[in-house]
Amino acid sequence: MMTGTLYIVATPIGNLDDITLRALRTLREADLIACEDTRQTRKLLDHAGISNPTVSYHDHNEAERAAELIAKLEAGMNIALVSDAGTPLISDPGYRLVAAAVDAGIPVVPIPGACAAIAALSASGLPPDAFRFCGFLPPKSSQRRKFLEDLASETGTLIFYEAPHRVLNALDDIAAVMGDRRVVLAREVSKLHEEFLRGTAAEIRAQLGERPVVRGEITILVGKREVGQGHALPDDAPIVAAVRALEEQGLSRMDSIKQVAKERGIPKREVYRRLTV
Hints:
The chain is an alpha/beta fold and 277 residues long.
């Protein structure tokens, strides 16, 4: 018996008209649809008149359910994997299932479509020639700053997802670590209240801070580092000046030392020695 096929089906991130004809056909023809949340996916399926059976597949049951789905695929069933919105696996469940299917020799077929990160980048006005998608920012400020510090030397546009109740604090940390780089905040992409805010992290934070509450799905894009912008001094700038520039942006002495050492490819003790001579 031939195995079935696992289809990775992108669904709309807001506007239901953004689903592709191929995605609709795949969902209609699938023997089973694996959903992050069956209730959420059922809204889309009902809108499209699709009544195929569904099964839950999410972070809390991924290990057990992946094995069950692989068995069904090996028995010849065709399964469509969807997330609540956008492209599965992109900050959504699915990696374990796809990896297991590949290991088992089961065909895996992507059905391309909406992705919030790419949609936001395309309309951001920031350079799209090189970019890095970083998923959700860490929830705690200390973790978030360390995460951002590790990305400070990246030369492409950085893309993050963020929860609305954390976005003001996240922008504070981006301003502290990234300085005055160009930032774009995309909110509710493809939905009725779609919005793009542009400026520095501090400027966007000030705009949002005037609102009673911030709601919606949020994507933050940080432009590439430019010489002389924020704390990004030229690589040949004096080490002491580079450390002090980072401290002025809000980093601790130790974090500033680590960042300068990393950017210049030298030991931390050498940076520390320069500061104490």
